[in-house]
UniProtKB/TrEMBL annotation:
One Pfam family from the record: Terpene_synth
Gene of this entry: LOC105175396
Record's keyword annotation contains Membrane: no
Name of the protein: Tricyclene synthase Oc15, chloroplastic-like isoform X1
Cofactor(s) this protein requires: Mg(2+)
Organism encoding this protein: Sesamum indicum
Single GO MF descriptor: magnesium ion binding
InterPro entries referenced in this protein's UniProt entry, alphabetically: Isoprenoid_synthase_dom_sf, Terpene_synth_N, Terpene_synth_N_sf, Terpene_synthase-like, Terpene_synthase_metal-bd, Terpenoid_cyclase/PrenylTrfase, Znf_SWIM
Sequence ranges assigned to domain SWIM-type in this UniProt record: 109-144
Coiled coil spans: none
Cited PANTHER family: OS04G0344100 PROTEIN-RELATED, S-(+)-LINALOOL SYNTHASE, CHLOROPLASTIC
Keyword Chaperone tagged: no
Length: 525
């Protein structure tokens, strides 16, 4: 068991770090689902466990009232346990906080969780009693960083031997190794000890797999494949809840609450999907541009997953879905429909953002252009009604930038001359659609307008998100969408820059670059 005697020097606040953590939780969720371009979204034709068709009939009113009452009772039961553990049992309180988060229920307890973590954080500046084992230190480290409280990775030096390496006898601590691997996912650039921790823990866990029973083997495999930091709790909580353990019966109550939360979510998401389906069908764009993808469920899954933690954000999810639909639609116009001359005219029209520009467009583009302006102006009006300002200038600028980048890409590949990998990536970050989505999300969330955070404050964060999406997406190919359009990839450009490089070497380079950007994103969030 490691001594924690030296830990008091490692819990040091970083100015500004605590203020930004929870604000940008959606950006992590964006990276937990497939990219906007090319890759199929694994939603299996359901949202929140229900098919996209309308379910006939509604539960009787008395059932709804009884359900709502029981749901609130369960929320309060867990709240009481959380408050009690927060006072009496530091280690168990962190386990409960983690379980609440993994169960997708943290939105109900943000104040209580914040109080517990700040209290433990402040106490750890002078005393770290109770955090002696690898599991507890790793869990404490991860929770603090997730909530914007800086903790030095040097806390893990306590688990190294005289040779400066993690001790081999930690192989016996499977629970600790799993949590160490989870903690290592929140590393920053230059934190070599966390790189070592990730390599050490993943190697030992894989090494132990043949010795484990089926249940533990399944849990370990799941942790390695889907670490919590890079997944969406509400979409992965089934397996976690199945294996959940807790003292004094809170695990049972938490499981029951999570199941009720799932049921409530199904009703909310079904209603939202019905709204966007009605909007999309009335637009008629799927019939007008037949070569473009018609994947409304996939587009809604993006916005649902990004804003999954709060059921009250229905308007934001619906409006964001509309923007995402146009990212896909315009992408397909550039990739598989339009000629270079037509794309040039369309790009000029989007940058003008004037209804009069419709007359300069080919017939098949006119409906799309009008719908883009109508929809985006409508989103700006909704934001104005809710938050008192109209961000239309920022919204239309994001669409102009997207089309400019699409056109640049189309010119490159029409000419047959590949750009350098660096030029491709800079342009490719825009063509992911991430900037458009994040700008709309920023204003739909009520940010900006003198609220202390501006678009320039999140530019580095947005760049990291877009870079990860572009590189991750380019590991695949347009064949995933069964398309036959003009599309390149970063790996192709990189190999063109480095003649003789194998595809495997290029892919390794891309994976390393993605890892590096995750570290930058961790620091920004």
């Amino acid at each position: 068991m490691a001594s924690c005697g030296g830990l008091s020097n490692f819990f040091l606040p970083r100015p500004g770090f605590a203020n930004i953590g929870k604000t940008y939780e959606p950006v992590r969720l964006i990276l937990s689902i497939s990219s906007t371009r090319k890759h199929k979204c694994d939603v299996n034709a359901t949202v929140g466990g229900i098919a996209p068709t309308t379910i006939s009939g509604c539960p009787p009113q008395d059932f709804q009232e009884k359900f709502a009452k029981e749901y609130e009772q369960k929320i309060e039961e867990i709240r009481q346990v959380l408050q009690s553990k927060g006072e009496d049992d530091p280690s168990e309180s962190l386990v409960l906080v983690d379980a609440i988060q993994r169960g997708g229920l943290s939105s109900h307890y943000e104040q209580e969780i914040g109080t517990i973590l700040r209290k433990r954080y402040e106490a750890s500046c002078s005393c770290t009693y109770g955090y002696y084992c690898l599991h507890d230190v790793s869990l404490f480290f991860r929770l603090l960083r997730e909530h914007g409280l800086y903790i030095s990775p040097d806390v893990f030096n306590n688990f190294k031997g005289k040779d400066g390496r993690f001790r081999r006898n930690l192989r016996q601590d499977i629970r600790g190794l799993m949590e160490l691997y989870e903690a290592a996912q929140l590393s920053f650039q230059g934190e070599l000890i966390l790189d070592e921790a990730a390599s050490f823990s993943s190697h030992l866990l894989r090494e132990c797999l043949p010795e484990m029973d089926n249940d533990l083997s399944r849990i370990i495999t799941g942790k390695l494949k889907y670490p919590y930091h890079k997944t969406i709790a509400k979409l992965t909580r089934k397996d976690f809840l199945q294996d959940l353990e807790g003292s004094n019966g809170w695990a049972k109550t938490l499981r029951e609450l999570a199941l009720m939360d799932l049921r409530k979510g199904q009703s909310v998401y079904q209603g939202e999907l019905a709204q966007v389906s009605k909007w999309w069908n009335e637009l008629g764009l799927a019939k007008e541009i037949k070569l473009a993808r018609n994947q409304l469920l996939k587009w809604y899954t993006w916005s649902m997953s990004i804003l999954i933690d709060d059921f009250s954000l229905s308007l934001q999810r619906v409006e964001l879905t509309k923007s995402i639909a146009f990212v896909y639609l315009i992408d397909d116009i550039f990739d598989v429909v339009g000629t270079l001359d037509e794309l040039t005219i369309f790009t000029e029209a989007v940058n003008k953002w004037e209804y009069a520009a419709i007359d300069m467009l080919p017939d098949y583009m006119k409906m799309c252009y009008r719908a883009l302006l109508d929809t985006t102006n409508g989103i700006g009006h909704e934001i104005y009604k809710r938050h008192g300002y109209d961000p239309i200038d920022s919204l239309k600028t994001s669409w102009g930038s997207l089309c400019n980048a699409y056109l640049m890409e189309a010119k490159w590949f029409a000419s047959g001359d590949l750009p350098t990998a660096a030029k491709y990536l800079e342009n490719g970050k825009v063509t992911t659609g991430a900037y458009v989505v994040l700008v709309h999300l920023f204003f739909l969330s009520g940010l900006g307008n003198g609220g202390g955070i501006g678009l320039t404050d999140v530019s580095r964060l947005a760049s990291s998100v877009a870079t990860i999406l572009r590189l991750w997406d380019d590991l695949g190919s347009a064949k995933d969408e069964h398309q036959d359009g003009r599309d390149g990839s970063y790996t192709e450009c990189y190999r063109n820059d480095h003649r003789g490089l194998s595809m495997a070497q290029a892919r390794d380079h891309v994976i390393d670059a993605i890892t590096s950007e995750w570290k930058s994103l961790n620091k920004e969030c």
